Structures are given as structure tokens and as C-alpha cells.
Amino acid sequence: MGPRSLSLLTAFALGQISVAAAAQPAPGGPPAVGVVRAERQQITQSDEFIGRIQAVNRVALVARVSAFLEKRLFVEGSEVKMGDLLYQLEQPPFQAQVDVSKATVDQLEAQHRNAEIALERAQQLLKTLAGPQATVDSALATERALAAQIAGAQAQLQTAEINLGYTEIRAPIDGKISSTSVTEGNVVSPTSGTLASLVSQDPMYVVFAIAQRTGLDLRNRYAAKGGYSAVVIKLRLPDGRVYGEDGKLDYVSPTVAENTDTLTLRGSIPNPVFPGMEAGQPGSRELADGEFVTVLLEGVQPVPVLAIPRAAVLSDQQGDYVYVVDAQGKAQIRRLQLGQSTPTTAVVTSGLQEGELVISEGLQRVVRPGEAVSAGPASPPPAMPPSAAPGGSDAKPPSAAAKPASGDAGAKP
Question: Looking at 18-95, which runs of residues are DSSP E strands?
């Protein structure tokens, strides 16, 4: 036998050995994986938006008359009550005008009384034929003219009293006042601009914009429970803390912004004084006018969703997917559409049926779809406080005790 024949014989023998080795089962049998059953859970869904805090009431204090500013009677940055005296303007010129107007009214009333007496006398003489009709007519005209002058003088008196009242600038609302822009001794007038600003403190508004599509999703999601009124507003503050008070949505803009295709929403939320502090002290309230916050819209009641462990979800260029174990004990791919998810739980909106067995452990052992696997219950997730679970205390952990059995892949637990 020549060298060429020996080489061919050796290659044939090696090929037969490879085929025989491929026909042998893998050592140890199918790969072991941990599975959980896709189940419906009651969770509270939330949506996040960027918002800004706004005061419910905002007042720019201005002078209504021209006068010297005599006193400033508030502490800048403090909280004031409705009716508190804030600025005192010079009063003597306005008081003098009130006194002059009162004297004019008194004078005209005296003249009017005399005219009434003259009219009565002329009417009595006319009855005895001792007086002409012309005298009566003249006396009547004089009386009516004086009555009209009295009405005009009383209007001037009322105007003078109003202007005198304008020398006291009082707080029209409860709220926190800004620094003053004009100090004592300066002349102020209606053209002087804003003397100080006053903003209300409790409650506050939070205003935020959402995409029109998101607004429709929210409305449809909670349509059966009252629509927009079925959501509660929570705030995440700039330092990452969740604000302790809840708010309610009270306004949705009637039009959609053309340039951004967004709706403007507004909620009202309490802003109480911190325990142990007094209103007006620096930092006595959590929320401040103009502050940026993260708005969390949450349903007032949990909603049922199909949920699986987040660790079971894989991703590639086509999107998200999971491996499930079918009735024959083989791993199969399911392409998913995910809703809101947390680091531990994924909400599935489509692509997966309730009751299917999802591989959540040992995914690295699954080489290809259609491969037989040895499925067992996955390890239970670590315990976590109710506040960290999806939807708070209403959420339920995914079942980890579902065992695969022939024909039960679609059965409910």
C-alpha cells in the first residue's frame, strides 16, 4: 500500500470517529435552567415628566397714587397674612382733600335745605293765589340744582377717601413677600412699577407638558376608573427624594401646542410648614415657586399586568426577547413588547402568553432555539421592602415554583 492510500484510509477513519462522536449524547444530558411562570400581577404604574412648581396666586404690589413712601412694615422674604399693612405712604395731602370734600358736601346740603324751604313757601303761596307760578318753578329748579351738586360733591368725597385708602398698601393674599424695590423717602406713583411681589405658599401648582400620544395612553389606561382624575401626582425633588405629599390633577389644556405636539397639565399639591418651624422662616416649606421637579403620575388603584423577572429579558438588534420552555421541553424564543419596567420586574404588553414558562436562570447554557433543556424552578428573588417593589405593597413577586411538565406550558398555575 502506497503513502497516498494510507493517507486516504487515515482520513476515512477519522471521519467515522467524528460521526460516531456526534451521535453520542452530550455528557450530563440537557442543560439545566431555572424557569418562572408568566403571571399577572397587580402593580401601580407610573409615568415620569419634568415639571415646574408655580404659586397658585401671584401679586405684584404697585402704588395707586403718587406720594412719598414713609414706612415699609414687613420683613423681606417673610410670610404675610391677607390685610397686613405693608407700605405706608404720606397721608396728609389726601386727608386734606377728604376734609375739603366733606366741607363742600356740608355747604351744599345747607343750601339745599334752604332751597327746599323756599320751594315749600312758594307752593303754599300758590295755593292761596298770592304767589305766581314762576316763583314756584324757580324755587324748584334751584332745589334740584343743589341736589345734583350734592351728588357730585359726594362722589368727589368718595374719590378722596379712596385715594386716602391707597396710601396704605396691604397684602391682598396670604403668601411670601419678596424684597422691596423702593425704600423709604422715595416718591412712588402708578408708573413706579412693582414695589414687591407676593406669592402664595400652600397649596402650590406643578405644571408639566406631556406628548399628545402619552396623554391618550393615560386617558385610555384609566378610562374605566375616571380618566385623568384616577391618577395621583407625586414629586421627585432635585436631590432625588420623593416628596411626602400627594397631589391631584386639576387642569388639562384644551389645545395641543403646535410646535411640540404636547398638552399642558397642572396639578395642585399641598406645601405645609415643616413640623417645628414657623411660616416665613427660611426653608420652612419644601416647595418653592419656580422649582424644577420630576412629576410622577401614578394610578390611584393598581392595574393587572403580565410580569416576568427583568433578568429573563434579553435584547438584540431586533428588540427584546425571552426564552420559554415549550411542551416538549425545548427552549423557544418569544419576541416581546415591554411596558414600564423596574430593575427587577419587566411588564410585558405583547408577545407572551400568561402561564408560559420563561427561562430566568441558566440562559448562558441555552445554545440555540429548539434545544432540549432540563427545566426546574428558579431561585426565589431576594426579599425587598414593599416600597421598592413594583407598585408598592400591592405588588406580588413572580411565581418561582412553577415546574415544567409535558403539555402544561400554556396552563395557568
Answer: 32-37, 39-43, 46-55, 58-61, 67-72, 79-80, 85-89
